[in-house]
Each structure stands twice: as structure tokens, then as C-alpha cells.
Amino acid sequence: EDQVTQSPEALRLQEGESSSLNCSYTVSGLRGLFWYRQDPGKGPEFLFTLYSAGEEKEKERLKATLTKKESFLHITAPKPEDSATYLCAATSGGSYIPTFGRGTSLIVHP
Amino acid sequence: SQTIHQWPATLVQPVGSPLSLECTVEGTSNPNLYWYRQAAGRGLQLLFYSVGIGQISSEVPQNLSASRPQDRQFILSSKKLLLSDSGFYLCAWTRQGPSTDQPQHFGDGTRLSIL
Questions:
Q1: B111–A89 C-beta distance less than 8 A
Q2: Would you call B43 an interface residue with chain A, using a CB distance cutoff of 8 Å?
Q3: N or C: where does chain B have the smaller number of CB atoms within 10 Å of the terminal CB?
Q4: Tally of domains within chain A
């Protein structure tokens, strides 16, 4: 059974304090690893797709990386507007169904 | 560009009443469509998905049903709501075909409260 585990569940940072969110996955034949941002009361917003180990993607203060067992979302010098829940999901084989983690709730204090 | 619309944004219903939530996608043809329920701290639970008109797959046995009467329209229904049906309901779409390398695009959800 495919599994995706995110840690920590919650993270509090001071503005400018860089950190990383972890997404560990156990899937048979990873096809895609996805990161989303979800603001309270809204649907998840797509951030990145990673396909193979060693791949990296960047967007503003966010950088996503992928290894054969996990993905990291690095947040550099975060700002309060980066506060949100970050979800990761993985797909495998020919499935139409991604497996989601439970998310990391990030709060950045000014 | 593609857009997804869900309505209503919030809904308060009494126990035993019927439910109809609607989701429509614009700007693409024959999308894969999904209904999720999200409970606080419990992640996304897939309820139904559809790869074409009239084709519905159910992931979790429950008090809900789904229909896809048109290519870009997905409806979540219930004949009699239970207290346990409360939650945040999300609709999502991907391009047609196996979505293994495609992200999902979500609507803004419906907050359903059952009294």
C-alpha cells in the first residue's frame, strides 16, 4: 500500500528563519511527487512536481528536492505570508489516484 | 486558461436533509474529476473520481453518491445527511488520461455543517 508521511505536523518559525519540511513516501514505482500550499478555507494550490531523484524546483523562497525515499520543501528566509499548510502527494504506476500526506501547518511570525 | 468552480462555499443543513454540491471545470475537455473530503488534521480523503461522463468510481462506502451528467460537471449528492457528513468538500481535476505525472487543480471547497 502506498504511503506518504509528512513531518513535522506543525512548524512555527520567526520571519527570516529558514527551515525544511519533510515528505517521506513509500510507493511502488514513483511517477510524480507533488507539493501544494493550502490557505485556511481554500483548496490546495499546486506548487511543484518532481519526477526523479536529484531533481529540484524553485519558486521564490521555496525549493523542493527529491531523493529515492523522501522530498524536502526548503523555505528560505520565510515571511508571514508563507504561513499555510503544505501538502505533498505521490503517484505510482498507472493509477489515477494520488496518495496525500496529512500536511505540515507552517506559521511564520513577524 | 482552465478554471474550476465549486458552490456553494458554505452550507448548513439539518440531519436527514438531501445534499447537492456542484463542481464545474472550464477551459478543458474530458478532464478527470475528483471529490475529496478534508477533516481537520486528517488530510484528504478521496470519495469519488470520474474519468468520463457517467463513469464514477467510489473509493469509500458511505452515505454519499456522485454523478457526472456532463463532461465538465461533477455533482456530489446525498439523500439523507448524517452528522458525520460534516466537513470540507473539495473538487479537483486533472487532464484526461492517467494522472500519474499531472498535478491536481482544486476548487475552493464547500464547508458543510450538519445540525
A1: no
A2: yes
A3: N
A4: 1
